[in-house]
Amino acid sequence: MARLREREDLDAVLLVRRVADPRRYGVIEGSASRPFAGVRRFDVRAMLEKPARPRSHWAATAIYAFGPAIWGVLREHARHRESGELEVTDGIAALLAAGGRISALVLDPGMGLWKSVGSPEGYAAALQASRTRALHARPHS
Predict the structure, then answer these.
(1) pLDDT tens digits along 95-137
(2) Which residues contact 78 (CB under 8 A, 6 or more apart)?
(3) Domain segments of the chain as ranges
């Protein structure tokens, strides 16, 4: 991800995954681009957090490679929020609105374990999967 961002001077590279119910995620809209290192890729046009009517099934996995521009954008957005909280999706949307260049790489289900932790049930499932993998990775005596 970082190699792609640096090589093409992108503002960010996101890792995305196709999901059945995109209303529960930050969703990207984009157009297919040439693959990178054999991995499917999109040029990102928009990112919306938990849209009521998603236009795609591509959910951000919360794995990002950002360039330096994100920090100024996040600081500016935090100033305008009552809570002062930094929202990554706001930063990505602001980068895009300012003409930023963002790509997304597709996480294929066969590339490894990914679990959503955006709900208590998802968090519990991720903990259980992590525990199970750790137990099976230990040598048996």
Answers:
(1) 999 999 999 999 876 666 666 666 677 667 767 767 776 777 7
(2) 84, 85, 86
(3) 2-107, 110-141
CA–CA dist 35, 39 (Å, integer): 5
Q: Does domain 2-107 have CATH number 3.90.550.10?
A: yes
Look up residue 49 and give its DSSP letter. Answer: E
Closest by Cα among 73, 74, 45 to 58: 45
For residue 95, give the nearest of 37, 10, 7 by alpha carbon: 10
| Tokens (6 digits) for 27 | 């969703």
Q: Cα(81)–Cα(117) distance, rounded to whole angstroms?
A: 24
Give Cα separations from 141 to 29, 37, 137, 138 (angstroms): 50, 40, 12, 9
